[in-house]
Specification:
411 residues; alpha/beta; 7-stranded mixed sheet; 6-stranded mixed sheet; 27% strand; globular
């Protein structure tokens, strides 16, 4: 027998967009349920670069100090190495925010923090191990979702349904909303190694001998990404672990020793890169945000932060009206109207970097001993460096919390 749960807002997906939306709508005094299909947040190799724009949102919510008590590694400047030459591309110390760094925080800590803060609002509920199976409709409107759970089938009836279930969004597929694909000529192989003693902690990108490898400081280990040509993962896996170690070590010699502790290609995870966006983000009763509305390339690590900005904008525009019973369909369209420019501009920049810098290197079209001219200019011209820091750290049109706040209470 299906159990029916009535709420004002149901959020499908407990990732960054979904958890932040759940927190903000519950904070506004709205009965809000977040549904997450997994039974915990403990999944590795997920986006976990928390940029200054997101840290500023945390401070605006008066949660910044508590948030930064969670394990993280701060990166105050961004550098890239091409062959033997290292370029400083961005220094975040000039940004007009309270936390002038990127915080590398495992995403499970980030999501767990949002869940714990949201739990202080009486209207919030988080349903783990609860997978959305179907959009519910009545008279042409989305009226909630059906879901499966360990306790049996559930139906969440809601005035507003928010789709935040990622780039493989089931809600997006069922909604019939059309997707515009922008293309991605690369994929990424994620793995981890011990951190070498001579690692400086802020050289994020390493390009050498036809390979590009990202190294993210995790304190006692590095989270690494090998960028490859689209569809090339199968051959790399077939070549085996020794060949993979040699490929990485040739590009980043300091990883040769730590790579010996990589014991299986099962420890190397494929991220199939996609860059796309919905032509429309909403239908009556339904709003899509985050990766569900626009899948981002991993370039710049900005995906989480755009997802957070979507959630903040949605709460700013919709929460008070939903609480007061005055929300209409045109209000849902206003979220896309506000966020689309930032998404378009960011995806344009990502596609340019993919096509003009990364793809030629990983495909073997040219070597990597000399940094590309655009990056040399960024490193040499201070104004361009500040613009790079602003673009990466704050993004385009960063959002600020304007949604209402209800009283917190201990549960």
């Amino acid at each position: 027998m299906t159990k029916i749960i009535d709420v004002d807002c149901v959020v499908a997906g407990g990732g960054p967009a979904g958890m932040m939306a759940g927190l903000l709508f519950a904070r506004a005094g709205i009965r809000t349920a977040v549904l997450e299909k997994h039974d915990d947040f403990l999944r590795d190799f997920r986006g976990d670069t928390v940029h200054p724009s997101t840290l500023e949102v945390m401070h605006e919510l008066k949660m910044g100090e508590r948030f930064l008590m969670r394990p993280h590694e701060p990166m105050h400047q961004l550098a890239a190495t091409f062959g033997e030459q290292t370029l400083k591309l961005a220094d975040f110390s000039h940004l007009p925010v309270r936390s002038k760094f990127i915080a590398f925080m495992p995403q499970w800590h980030f999501l767990d923090f949002l869940a714990s803060e949201a739990a202080a609002y009486p209207g919030f509920s988080l349903h783990m191990h609860t997978e959305v199976t179907e959009l519910m409709r009545k008279d042409g409107r989305v009226t909630g979702v059906a879901a499966s759970s360990p306790d049996g089938p559930l139906e969440f009836r809601a005035k507003l349904t928010i789709g935040a279930d990622g780039r493989g969004s089931r809600l997006r597929d069922q909604s019939g909303l059309k997707v515009k694909h922008l293309g991605a000529p690369i994929d990424v192989l994620w793995f981890r190694t011990e951190r070498p003693l001579d690692d400086d902690g802020h050289t994020l990108l390493n390009a050498n001998k036809g390979r590009i490898i990202v190294t993210i400081d995790r304190g006692d280990y590095l989270q690494c990404a090998l960028m490859i040509a689209k569809g090339g993962a199968e051959q790399i896996v077939a070549d085996g672990l020794d060949a993979f170690r040699r490929t990485v070590a040739e590009a980043v010699p300091k990883l040769a020793g730590p790579l010996q502790k990589l014991t299986s290609m099962d420890d190397v995870k494929l991220l199939t890169v996609a860059v796309d966006r919905l032509e429309r983000w909403a239908k009556p009763g339904l709003l899509m945000i985050g990766d569900s509305a626009h899948a981002m390339s991993p370039i710049g690590g900005v995906g989480i932060n755009l997802a957070i900005q979507d959630a903040v904008a949605a709460a700013n525009l919709l929460a008070a009206k939903l609480r007061d019973g005055t929300l209409c369909d045109d209000d849902l369209q206003a979220v896309r109207k506000r966020r689309l420019g930032a998404v378009r501009a960011t995806q344009f920049m990502q596609v340019q970097v993919q096509n003009r810098i990364i793809a030629p290197i990983v495909s073997g079209a040219h070597g990597t001993q000399n940094p590309p001219l655009p990056l040399r200019l960024v490193a040499r011209v201070p104004w361009l460096g500040r613009q790079m820091a602003k673009f990466v750290g704050l993004g385009i049109r960063p959002e600020h919390v304007r949604s209402p706040e209800a009283h917190r209470s201990a549960k």
